[in-house]
Amino acid sequence: MNFTLFQFQIQNFYRKLIDSTWRLSLLGFVLSICLIFLSGCGGTAQKKDSVIHLTLWQSINPPANRDVFEKLVDKFNQNHTDVQVESIFIGQPQLPKILTAVVGNAPPDILLYDPQTTGQFAELGAIRPLEDWLDKLPLKSEIISNLFEELQLNGHIWSVPLYTANLGIFYRPKLFQAAGITQTPKTWKELRQAAKKLTIDRNGDNRPEQYGILLPLGKQEWTVFSWFPFLLSAGGEVLTDNTPNLMTKAAINALQFWQDLIRDGSATLSPPERGYEEDAFISGRVAMQITGPWTYIMKSNVDYGVFPIPVNIEPTTVTATGVVHVMKTTPAREQAALKFLEYVVSVEFQKEWSMETGFLPVNIKAGQSEAFEQFISKKPVLKMFMEQMSVARTRPIIPGYSRLSDSLGRAIEAALLGESPQKALKAAQEHLELIWDNK
Fold first, then answer.
1. Pairing of strands 239-240, 243-244
2. Using an 8 Å Cβ cutoff, are 247 and 429 in contact?
3. Residue 213: which H helix or E strand, with range?
4. Helix (H) or strand (E) holding 84
5. Collapsed DSSP state (helix, strand, coil) of residue 143
6. What is the pLDDT of residues 56-75, one digit of tens each?
């Protein structure tokens, strides 16, 4: 995508949009202007000659992956005489555009988006629950089981997964060899030791030409996403009974570990809100980077390998999943949309999508197919990510996720810039307690 580098920059905008009264008034004004535009954008399906025409909004990046998706949509259209799907790319800021369409009663029929926004859409009554349909579908048993954590909220299934992946740590084998490191780190202690060995100040000016690892500076979702595997590996959560609880031993330990890497001098920070960029890794300025199989690193000419997120208490990582929602429209249009969702989770779709994009198949049979096994045998990096799926977990699926993420991101950024983890998390917790009940 680059995993979408996806929808992360709109989280803070959405929080402000919802929390501020005058911005709600502004939204009403914007709606009056935008609805004229939206009504002509294909937001409503038209039925002509017994064919139902549906609109699908997506924000797939990079364009090469978008081309793969468009080709697969074309295949669906060629094989269905009663339903035709039009795929429409929506650029930034994505969430405000979606909310404007929903409030203006001009939504798309199908939406491909981030599962962490499911709670917001469900509260608005914008999406259709899918369990009645999915429970009758034989394909349900073929979907990777631990992905259902991202699909469910309040006893309902709200989406199906189109793609998935998870985070690992990419590394430069030649730099490891030069530093005398013969094994990839398996624990936090080993990761810290390796980062120190890989940090090199050749001219003694206290500004290393090579750092052990890159950490993402910023308060937006990419930073939270990248830190989450360390929280999970420390045995942590950020919710207790669906209420934020950031002042836990695990959260403090995970944030302290990142701060220790900075204090050791063996980690460098990315430019603000650009922790997903790989330039420093590809140039050799950093030896390790937290990212996933969507990365451009795999298409570059540099030497690289990947290893699982090192363990503190338990092995784990965090999923990077894109899900498909059926928006509430009319029964006929919703039923037509379900045909496309069935296609999305099919072996046919998942094999082609995964082999051409680098994402992992959400369909178990697709991952076990001869074609995919031959494909992955030539890409051992993908095999590691496939194996990690068994321990992969998700970020919270709750209506207030954007507020939680925003506060947590601010705490992570503060700690990376020198604030004590306890103080940073306490400030974030106190802020959340003031706003959490005012949803």
1. antiparallel
2. yes
3. strand 211-215
4. strand 83-89
5. strand
6. 999 998 899 999 999 999 99
